[in-house]
Amino acid sequence: MKKNNIFKLLIAFVFALILSTNVYATEIKGDLDGDGEVTAYDAYLSLLVVQEEEDAIEVTEENIELIDIDSDKEVTEEDTQLILDYSVDIVEDQTMWVIEDETEAIDESINRFYYNQLDQYEKAIYDGIMNDLEYVESKNGAFINLGEKLNDVAQGKTDKELKDVVQNAYYALHYDQPGLFYLDRISLTSASTYKNGQIVTIYGAKTYLTADAKSDIAGIQTDKTRMETIKNNAVKAVSGKNDYDKLLYLHDFIVNNTNYVSDAQNRYNALGCLIEKKAVCEGYALAYKYLCNAAGIQCEMIVSDTHAWNAVYLNNAWYYVDTTWDDPVGYSGVTRHTYFLRGSNYMSKVDQHQLYKVGSLIYPNVSKTDYNK
Fold first, then answer.
1. Which among 61-75, 100-114, 131-145, 312-326 has the top mean pLDDT?
2. Which of helix, strand or coil describes residue 197?
3. Are 221 and 343 members of one domain?
4. Quick one: 199 and 229 in the same domain?
5. What is d(CA 209, CA 267) in angstroms, rounded to the nearest whole number?
6. CA-wise closest residue to 73 among 86, 87, 59, 83
7. Number of structural domains, the chain?
8. Predicted pLDDT at 357
9. pTM for this one?
10. Together in a domain, 137 and 224
11. Torsion sign across C-alpha atoms 117, 119, 122, 128
């Protein structure tokens, strides 16, 4: 490390004698003391970690990203140097970035439109899957036995009724949570006697393949990180824009960066659209919802028997957006907005856009007329 930089760190050490050492993770990468700013004192705390000092900040899974600035999965002097350089304006602002998921401040209803329509038994299955995601990810396609904790789901129900409950729960989950690209369809795999009721066993198996065509556990975590990076960059790009401009920007981002490929390995999920840039309509629609929700806009999945698109909420009304049909393929590469913020009167007359009922789920009540800016 250069002498002048060591001198800077010595200055930071003086700060450390004055400031509190009660450190905790915050949302800004590099801000180790949690004061909302990245300063020389944060560089000093990082150096303590590198030198394995007793009073160093504890390195946990929750705060490792705060310290590992260069994202090489190690905490080294390079990370300390980056924090220090940033604090004295040697490096530009892009070195630091927000870790905290920016969707957390958004009303949960944005991601729970279909969940809120389920009955108590369907919600129990939906919640059971969400609670067991870590298990599914670690087992690379594992059975989730909801067992006794959901025993009352099966009480007094026929096999047909049980399957309907599971189906509704799955579709609500699939349409609400496009970030769960690695989950397979869930189904009733057994209904056996358990005490006075039955066991409902459902599963989530990863049907997508990682970029190197390997279906491995590490691939899930890697692809989740890649997805979150795309999401965070998109949110940053639309920061400060009004909702109309956010919707337009994200629409153009999808259609200009995705190719319609009917046999792509991840064509039915958001990862295929956003990472591999190859998908079919379902992948386009799930990706658009994923980004719109992250940007704070309510966006829902809509399906017909052969197609999928979205409904978005703008200025107190719902409108249709079809990113797949606006893809410029075959139109000299010119971005189209033919199917952007359309009303039901227009869309119902377009081929493949007749609504298809999925279980008991109800779609948003879309405006009859197109959006008038």
1. 312-326
2. strand
3. yes
4. no
5. 11
6. 59
7. 3
8. 87
9. 0.67
10. no
11. positive
